[in-house]
Amino acid sequence: MKVRYVTMTLLLFRTVPKLEGFEYKSLLKMSTEEEHYLSPKCVNGIKWIMDVFGDCVDTDLKFFGFVIGFISLFLWLLPLIPQLLHNYRTKRCEGLSMYFLLFWILGDSCNMAGALLTNQQPLQKIIGVYYVLQDMTLLFQYFYYTRIYRRNEGIFCNRSNFFCAVNNCASIMPLLAVHITPLINSTAIVPSIFVGLFVIGALFSNKISSNSLRHRPTHETLPGNRRLLSIELGGQPLFHGYYDVLGYVIGSVSATCYFASRIPQLLKNYYRQSCEGLSLVMFYIIIGANVAYGLSVLLGGSGWHYILRHLPWLVGSLGVCVFDVFVVIQHFYYDRLHRNKDLTEQEGLLEDID
Fold it and tell me: What predicted TM-score, i.e. pTM, was given to this entire model?
């Protein structure tokens, strides 16, 4: 579910080399003092963007990408709100997969941990904490409405009259119809998660092995006589230090979690033959946010070196969109299927009456 704009700043990939022969005028006229505080590699960048987000925006294309990324950041503040409201109104969370929530929380926790470990800007830290708190609220709703609320509702009805019991039974029967499925349906969720992780790992390993002949370890001397292992790709270092590697690893783990989270949700929808309980607005916002984020990454640079450095974020955004689109398709398909089934049953009852 979701690669966030804050994740991008976990890497120290804040500057992209300019193309040779490419001249560009600064987007904003800066004073000599402002230029002094900018990175030596980003003398023509916008100062406030560099200060707040740590991104070197020194071309119109990068600025357009930054605007799209900012839209993505705004959208990522909203997606869980429709689902939280839907759960509160219906007092149910049976449509959500617990593994979907757990993987989502793990991915956002990686975002927050990366922002804290790499000492990012306060804004990134606050957003990272906000995502985790929002996820924990949704997880609390899930356990409360599926475990505590239903149990208390049953106790209340046992102490009430017969009509309460009848109403409670009528409300629970659809849930029983959902949960009474073959044993293989419930036990296949966990293996499917590991299969998904294996496929993702294979894709990453194939990508790395295909370029292994071009990768060669070198040692780079940094200030303080500190020597760090780096990997060169086409003569350019892929990683520039331990924090660079740390950001890449955290981003890869986070992207893997977001990517794998959709598998159990898709399977649950398939076994239930329904998407009831899921907020379609949530998935619309997620798709929009991921598309905007993926475009902002692609507009931030070019070349295989840039793509490889940002591969986890592209997979975790544009790749996840494929699964989210399938969820939307499932919703319309099962909704139409149930409506046609209801019409068929109504026609059958009318024929019996006649």
Answer: 0.65
Say whether 124 sits in a helix, a strand or coil: helix
The DSSP line for 38-86 is S-TT-TTS-HHHHHHH-----SHHHHHHHHHHHHHHHHTTSTHHHHHHH
d(CA 313, CA 309): 9
3-class SS at 326? Answer: helix
48, pLDDT greater than 90: no
How far the first Cα of the chain sits from its last, in Å, is: 51
Residues 268 and 186 sit within 8 Å (Cβ to Cβ): no
> Nearest CA to 109 among 84, 142, 131, 78?
131
Give pLDDT, residue 158: 52
Greater confidence (171 vs 140) lies with: 140
Query: Is the separation of the CB atoms in 69 and 293 below 8 Å?
Result: yes
Sheet holding 226-233, edge to edge: 216-222, 226-233, 236-237
Specify whether the backbone of 166 is left (phi greater than 0), alpha (psi in -120 to 50) or beta. Answer: alpha
How far is it between the farthest Cα atoms of the chain?
Answer: 93
pLDDT winner (highest mean) among 18-27, 179-188, 216-225, 298-307: 298-307
Alpha helices in the chain (DSSP H): 5-8, 32-37, 47-53, 60-75, 80-90, 98-117, 122-143, 149-158, 162-179, 183-187, 189-210, 242-272, 280-299, 304-309, 311-314, 320-353
Q: Nearest Cα to 5, choosing from 285, 251, 320, 246?
A: 251
Q: Where are the domains of the chain?
A: 5-13+25-172+191-343
Most confident of 47-61, 104-118, 188-202, 267-281: 267-281
